[in-house]
Structure formats: structure tokens, C-alpha cells
User: What shape does this take?
Amino acid sequence: MIEIYKRQSEMHPRQNRCRDSGIFAIFVEKLQRRLCPEKTNVTNRSMKTLKFLFPVILVMAGMVGCKKTPAASPAKVTEGDSEVNKWIFSMMNDHYLWSTDNQWKSAHAKPDYNMDYDAFFQWSLQRPPVTFANNAPHDGRITDGNWTPYSYIDVTDKGDASAAVRSISGNNSFGFEFKFFYFDENPNPNTAIYANVFYVVPGSPADRAGIKRGMWIQKVNDSPISISSYEKIDHDMKGSATNPTVKLLLTDITYQVSGNNITGYKFSPHAEPITLKAERVEESPVCIDTVFSVGTNKIAYLLYNVFDRGRNSVTLEEDSNDTTYEEQLKQAFEKFAREGKGNADLVIDLRYNPGGYLVTCRLLASLIHPSATENTDTFSVLVDLNGKEIYNSYKYFLPTGKTGVNFSLPHPQIYILATRYTASASELLINGLRGAKNPSITVHHIGGRTAGKNVGMNLYEKDFGAKTYSMWPITFQIKNALGDSNYANGFLPGSSSIRYDLTYDVGEFDEFDEVGNLKVKTGDTCALKPFLGMDEQGYPLDPLLRRAVDLITGKSVQSSLSTQPPSARSGGAGIGIKELPFSSLDRKPVRGAILIPDRTETE
Assistant: This one.
């Protein structure tokens, strides 16, 4: 059986769910008013429709020419849906985390098997409250009155090789990930959208072409990135067998500063575009592993982008029986032990990590906490609908003898960089380490609020005719050794060794925190800093890593502005970089904490 903790940002293919409907709605409304000032009176109904549209169909949702949102077509009930629905209800009744609750039983006492299978599945779910009392387990979120469940169902052609768990590694790709931004420059609004490269896969077409983290993309295949071209631009930059090349025009963006405020930006397009050709790209989860020094302090740094075990050497598809990437993870810690000489503080960068295999997550936790005792020191506890622990084989830390690595922390503390892209197994790592004993470990979380998911999923599959139905209902809750599962609303930055009594350091940091963490002046480049970029004093330029080094070295925060939320740190009134609530990471599939002990259930 395969268990997956699915990120909230993952989207149901039939419902086009957006990661953050609240932020997305604000963005849509703002651009609607700018592009169509004569129609600023957007109704609540139309806004609710807009909120749930996936970005690639944003243009079709009433944004082109300021047209009205078209009405959705009713779902078509197929002849086989009745039998499919009976199977769905049987699985939900036996496994869904809330199926033993009286509220669920009462609401689902009379199933209508003649509904469309997807509508029936949605009916079978437990709608969560608007707020999660005590971070109770829940199926999805409600934002502005709109519910986005975690549970979902999908249908594929029978025998389709597309696995339930897959990443861009192994697919045709240009080898870089990107986020979208626009620049708020009131009273002269700039409604153009720019793509920012936030990492490049080593050896990929993008890497060979000289594309670096922080570079800005202004045009794709000669088209500017705007609301009216977003769908095509988003598709063109991903790369595929049917979309083998892309032409990118880069632009340099610099700050305009007056006093302590950013007053605007200068855009300087490059003279010639860069053309990339897509190819099969293998992306190792161990993106960067190094030891560097700041003063007398040694720091071991790991940029780790997914909890992946290995790849098929021919197809580059995920292979749970291949442990190549786990071996690379062990080698990273062998380097930390060798070069750190037992005296290196550890920084784990999970800012882009959406989850992965639980066995790999446990391995990483055990490398961090090597003094654990086998079958004694608990890492995680999974609890089913009856309150019973399940899969105890994944419960404990691994002792040093099982990892084969003798890395040790000089102090019982770790620094984890995490953002809204940090989810599932990554959050499990934070939670599990905060529950560790012998000794307890202080976990310093630096960055932003994480995705927030303290529940897990089972995959159930069954063939009906020529189709395979894959259902992922929430079936269990995850806790640490202290019984804590208190992160349904996401982890906030802070420091904690026991439970959730956080001692907040300076609030949230984002990657564009130049004002909060570094002083900028007119002409300075507006860009994400290299992960390991250093200033003239040998101090990290990246705001998240810089704050971790501040804590390690005991250095005070450089600006009181850093205590403000990221949205308040962009400069003068109405001025600032506005990150859109979607990125290329959103195309990455179901991640989470994946268990691999048994075969997928088919009955």
C-alpha cells in the first residue's frame, strides 16, 4: 500500500484548484481593476469563481477583454459511474479518517450512486470548519468560504504507466524552476509579469546556457509575460516532447531608492535571447552539500529538494527499489563529518521541498540524530480512523549502525530553512525532530509559514472497464513522539525543542528581504541571491541562510524592519515585488510522505 501526504498546493485535474485562493483572489481583483477600471464592481460570485481557477486558464476566466466568467458545464454521468461510486463509498466507509464520526455517518447515510463519480466523491468528504480548533486533523482548507479538500480522485486509461508519484526529473525539461512576480509601482502600475529563476538543475540545458538563480525572464518566444499570454507562457517554459525548444529574453532589474524606501525599478532587457532545447533531466534531491566557515564557526549546509529514493537508470522514473539518492544523502553527511570535524552546525534548506518518501525522511532524521536507540526512540506515529497506530516499522529513528555514517552535531540544535513550498514529509522532519529525545533537539525554523498538513493519504485503485480509478482519501494523522500534531495551519518560524512553545526570533523572512536584512541603494540588482553567495566579509547574501548564520554566530539582526511580515517590507507605500501564488513547483505531482511496505489496494 502506498501512503502519501499530499500538499495543499497540488491541484485536482478536474477541478483546477489553486494553491492559495485568498492571495490569488486579491491579485485577480487588483489586476481586474487596473486592466478594466470601468468594471471595478466585481461581484462576490464572480470573484469566488475566479479564485479557484488554475493559473494556466486564468485568461479564460473573464480576464481577457474583461469578459464575464463563462458558466461551468455540468458533469456528465457515465454508464459505469454507479459501480464506481459503490466502490468509492465502500473504501471511504472503511478507511476515511472521519468515517467513524457520527457527523459523517449522519450526512452520508443515503448515498446516491447515480451521481457523476467525481461529484459523488466530493459528496463523500468531510467538510472542515473554517478554523481548525487546536489544529485538529482536517481534509483541506476553507479560504474566503471556499473549500479545497486534500482528498481527491483521478481516472486514467487502464495500463497507463504514469505513476501516482512523479517529479519533473525524468521528463523532458529545460532544467530550471521559476516563480512569477509583478512589480507594484503606484501611481504608475506595472501590470507586466516577470518570471524569476529560483534554481537550476546542474548539467541541464538551462545550466549549460548560463542561466543562474535570480535571473529575470521578460519575454518567452518573443511574447511578454502578461495576463493575456500567461497560459501559453506557462506551458512554453516547462518543456516537453511536444514543446522541445524555448526562446527566453532576460532582463536586468535594479532598484530605485530614496532614503530608506524603494521608489521604483529599472528594467534593462538583454540584447539577445537565449534558446534552450528540452531533454531528459535527472534532478538529484541533494542539490548542494558543503561545509563553509564564517569566522571561527564551521557550517554544514544541505539544500535538499525532495525526499526521493532513486531513479530507474534507463527511464529516470522514480523507483522505490533504487536507493541511489539515499546513498548520496549519506555521502553528504560523511562529507559533513569529515570536513566539519565534529564541530559543524547544521543547516538543512527545505525551502522548495514538497515531501517524498517517509523512509527517506526517517533516514535524514536519523543522520541528524545519530544517538537514537533502535526500536526505542520514536520519530513519527501514524494514527488511523480508530485511533490505532499503524506502520510501526516506520516509527523509530535508525541508529548509527544502520545509517553507516558517524556525523554528530556539536550542539543539540538544527537550523531548517522553510517556506510555503515546504510541505508534508518536510514538515514531518520538523515535527519529528521536535519530539526527539536522548537528547532533545532544538529546531530553529527560519523563513515563512509552511504548507501545513498533519494528515496522510492512502492510494486505492481499481479498474472499471478500460479505465483505472485512483482515489486518495485522507486516512490517518501523523504525530511525533510527544503526541504532537499541531501544525494543520503550518509551522511558523521560531525555535523550539519541546512541543510548540516557540521563542520567535524575528518573524518571517522571505527570499527578497533585501530591505529587511540587507541595505540596498539605487542601482543595486533586484534578484534572488545565490544560495551560497557571500559578501566581502564572507557572510551569506541569501536572507534565509544569513539569518541562520546570525543565530549560529550570535550576531544580532541587522534591521528592525525584519520583524515585519514580508508583505510590509517592500519599501514605500504601494511599492514592492509581489509574488504570485503559483510557480513551476505547482506542476510537481503528489509528494508527501510515501510509505512503501505493501502493494496498492485494489478492492
About this structure: The longest helix spans residues 324-340. The CA atoms of residues 32 and 240 lie 32 Å apart. The domain at 286-454+484-509+587-594 is CATH 3.90.226.10 (2-enoyl-CoA Hydratase; Chain A, domain 1).
